[in-house]
Amino acid sequence: MEKNEKFSAIELIKNNYKYVLSILATIIMAVVLYTNAVDLPKKFLVLLFLIASSLIIVLPRKIEYATIAIILVMGGMSALISPIHDIPDEYVHQARAVYIAEGDFNLTNNIKKLKVSEDVKRISEHTGQTLVNETLKETKHNSKEFSYSAIKMTNAYYSISYLPQAFGICLGNFLNLPVIVTYYLGRICNLLVYALLIFLALKISGSLKQVIAVVSLIPMNIYLAASYSQDGFALGIVLLTLSIFMNMIQKKTDSIPNGHLLLYYLLCAILVLTKFTYFLLVLLPFFIPNEKFGKNRKLILLNKILGIIIVTAFAAIWFKLYGQVKTPQLADFLKQVNAGKQIHNIISQPLLYGRVVLREMLVNLFNLDNIFTFGALSYGISNLFTLYAVFAVIVYLNNATKVIINWWTRLGILLVIAGITGATVLALYLTWTPVGELSVLGVQSRYLIGILPLVFLVFTNQNKQMEKVKDFLSTKAVLNIALLFNICMILSTIFRYYN
């Protein structure tokens, strides 16, 4: 028995030593790239090496379990080492989660009703501080409330986006944990729900599991999911929705269950409340050949059209409702923002202002490097974007021939990509950019991460030469590379705040 165990251990080391060496090399590279300090945080570096090496060695064989393991381990580390409110707009997202945890689900323009416990104030007073800070460790929950109008900045998202974080806060308060522990518990609960949504997405994505796994492991996704940002929940829903679409396009004639289409439209309705512009995914089933759904093509077409109409009507209602909650003008330039006048400019001079919107669409589609920029867009690993682009090409080659898409479906995917990109840019031009500006303020590449699986689908190819390179890189190797980028993300945070 001892000989077998010894043999197994040797085999385990032999099969994984290249991965372990890649982790060591990545840490050394990050030291060179991201810090000038002589006194390195050695304990952090050794701990990260041991955790990452152990993770890759014992990584489950099934891709869905392996992906979730990486999300939970890397996300858990990010949740704990990221300073208080380091993630973009985390202070208002945390306040909204507290607001919901205390029983308030709907926003209002009445500031007197926008009350949260003083826990929010106490946490905000320590913005930028890390887990090692001792100040808040003995501070317990305080039910005394104060008015906090900044919550209205989250008006575009309904409460469903914050239920995971709110649950963590409720649990922490119920257990009478220190405020700082409850704060981190809210982050962890958000991460757990993201992991669950990705697990479900991987289960149903068919032969395209690798594509969904790699997108879900983009460092920015894990960074956001391990915070109070609603983006974690929203991105999980986006990838789950796209997995159902991928599942449907892989089906043969008469093989798509009716429940798939209904579930798809339900998720699109949830996207209305969580990631508004992504409700345009509702159009994709219209471009799937009707014969895949059943013999009654007229009924299938009617169902598709009804689904689009219902979700679009729901989106229009929600747009009207959340627009009634007026966001506070926290910056001087916002006083020059006027959606009505901006629309008038676009209509009166479509060539001039249409070009502004189109240019911003193209720039953000072809230049996604700030998905590797963290904090207040102040640090990160954006100099690795070229390497990540090479990795993305490898993933494409690994999977490009696994699905067959006709020209009609491909056209629909292109239209939806253009629609989501255009709607995202236009929304920020109307609500965040001063009237008459010839550039669009506030557009960040992370807003478009959700379309990446669609971009992959556009370029799928049944070329015989490409068939020869299918799966030339093993799933474990692909996941290991994704892990290396996340290690760099963790290290960029450590070198920023723990030197």
Structural description of this entry:
- With 499 residues, the protein is mainly α.
- It folds into two domains: 2-79, no CATH class; 90-497, no CATH class.
- The protein has 19 helices and four strands.
- The protein has helices at residues 2-34, 42-57, 63-81, 90-101, 119-124, 163-174, 179-204, 209-216, 219-225, 231-249, 258-274, 297-323, 339-348, 350-366, 385-399, 407-431, 452-458, 464-467, 475-497, and strands at residues 115-117, 145-147, 373-374, 379-380.
- The strands form two sheets. Strands 1-2 form a two-stranded antiparallel ribbon.
- Strand 3 and strand 4 (379-380) form a beta hairpin.
- The radius of gyration is 24 Å and the shape is globular.
User: What series of H and E elements makes up the topology?
Assistant: HHHHEHEHHHHHHHHHEEHHHHH
Our Rg estimate from Cα atoms comes to 24 Å
Number of H- or I-type helical stretches: 19
Assembly type: single chain
Q: How many E-type strands?
A: 4
Strand order of the largest sheet: 1-2
- Quick one: biggest sheet? 2 strands, antiparallel
Overall average residue pLDDT: 90
- Assign an overall shape: globular
Distance from first to last alpha carbon: 46 Å
Structural classification: mainly alpha
Unreliable spans are: none
Number of domains: 2
Helicity, in percent? 55-70%
Q: How much strand content do the residues show?
A: under 5%
